[in-house]
Amino acid sequence: MDKFMEAAYNEALKSYNEGGIPIGSVLVHNGKIIGRGHNQRVQKGSAILHGEMDALENAGRLPASTYRECIIYTTLSPCSMCSGTMLLYGIPKVVIGENKTFLGQEDWLKQNGIELQIIDSQACIDLMEKFISEKPEIWNEDIGE
């Protein structure tokens, strides 16, 4: 696991340890993390603070040109909301830790010219599977089942 996915994974662990959904993300610009975050739906009672959204929020307001030079790392395949935000800001590349426990809008991202790299990280898979088995009601709430 490279250092940026490891940072995203550490964010996911932070969320898990806080009692939240273990999804983490980092926004990288020119080889430097400029935003990091984790899913905080449970911790903050938020409808929108997924890992990617939290990382973008924590990066702060940036010029459009900066987003177009970024890579976002996320431990889990991004949902419609997060994918739409990536498209909105023109983030050209998404590195995904895993898409086995949840397959997000990868086709939509690709169709819109975003480069995807799937790591298929066993650590990311194991953490999500552990969470899903421990708290299926929270997982099902988040994914709408």
Which keywords apply here?
five-stranded mixed sheet, globular, 145 residues, 18% strand, 5 strands, alpha/beta
> Unreliable segments (pLDDT under 50, ≥5 consecutive)?
none
End-to-end separation in angstroms reads: 31 Å
What is the overall number of helices? 8
Q: Report the average pLDDT across residues.
A: 95
What overall geometry do the principal axes of the alpha carbons give? globular
| Largest sheet descriptor | 5 strands, mixed
Strands in their spatial order, largest beta sheet: 2-1-3-4-5
Please state the structural category: alpha/beta
Describe, in plain words, how this protein is organized in 3D.
With 145 residues, the protein is of the alpha/beta class. The protein has helices spanning 3-17, 41-44, 51-59, 64-67, 80-89, 106-111, 122-134, 136-143, and strands at residues 24-29, 32-38, 70-74, 93-96, 115-118. Strands 2-1-3-4-5 form a 5-stranded mixed β-sheet. It starts with a helix and ends with a helix. The model has no long low-confidence stretch (mean pLDDT 95).
Which helices and strands occur, and which strands form pairs?
Elements: H1 3-17, E1 24-29, E2 32-38, H2 41-44, H3 51-59, H4 64-67, E3 70-74, H5 80-89, E4 93-96, H6 106-111, E5 115-118, H7 122-134, H8 136-143
Parallel strand pairs: 3-4, 4-5
Antiparallel strand pairs: 1-2, 1-3
Helix pairs in contact: 1-7, 7-8
Compact overview of the structure:
By secondary structure, the protein is an alpha/beta fold. The chain has helices at 3-17, 41-44, 51-59, 64-67, 80-89, 106-111, 122-134, 136-143, and strands at 24-29, 32-38, 70-74, 93-96, 115-118.
